[in-house]
Amino acid sequence: MTRQRKVILEEVRKDLDRHLTADEVYEEVRKHLPRISLGTVYRNLEILAELGKIQKLELSGSVKRFDGNPQRHYHIRCMRCGRVDNAPVAPLQQIENRLYGATVYTIIGHRLEFEGFCPRCSKEMAGDQATTPAENEN
Fold first, then answer.
1. C-alpha distance from residue 121 to each of 51, 124, 133 (Å)
2. Rounded distance, CA 98 to CA 107, Å?
3. DSSP 8-state assignment for residue 14
4. Which of 33, 52, 74, 127 has the CA that lies 20 to 30 A from 44?
């Protein structure tokens, strides 16, 4: 493992609740390796994902993100701000088991993404709704 790849992996794994974009990883890695290029960060993120060291999240409606936890788990995406969090449920093996024999596909896994509004956006939206009727009277 190259020094660059090691630093990239460390940054992605620094906080397993973060799900950084490649640009965010680049900004963090540059603090340690100021001369690294964005292209190098992108290439190494892809390699680390292929090696199973990290997960590449290709969630609908958002840019690719990278998760330092390579174990299978689900995510929740805020439909307003794009925040991504880990979903606090275990992976559902039953889904794959039900497909076995019901399709000609060889099932190798599945992805499940939950959508909703994060606490901050929920609060902001509730505040917006509270002020809307008063604004309409003016």
1. 35, 5, 19
2. 11
3. S
4. 74
Q: pTM for the complete prediction?
A: 0.77
Kindly report, residue by residue over 34-61, the tens digit of the pLDDT: 999 999 999 999 999 999 999 999 887 6
Cβ atoms < 10 Å from Cβ of 76: 18
CATH annotation of 1-68: 1.10.10.10
Contact call for residues 41 and 22 (beta carbons, < 8 A): yes
Give dist(CA 36, CA 45) in Å, integer: 13
CATH class of 72-138: alpha beta
DSSP structure class, residue 20? E
Name 10's Cβ contacts closer than 8 Å, sequence gap at least 6: none
Residues in Cβ contact with 62 at an 8 Å cutoff, skipping those fewer than 6 apart: 77, 82, 84
Length of the chain: 138
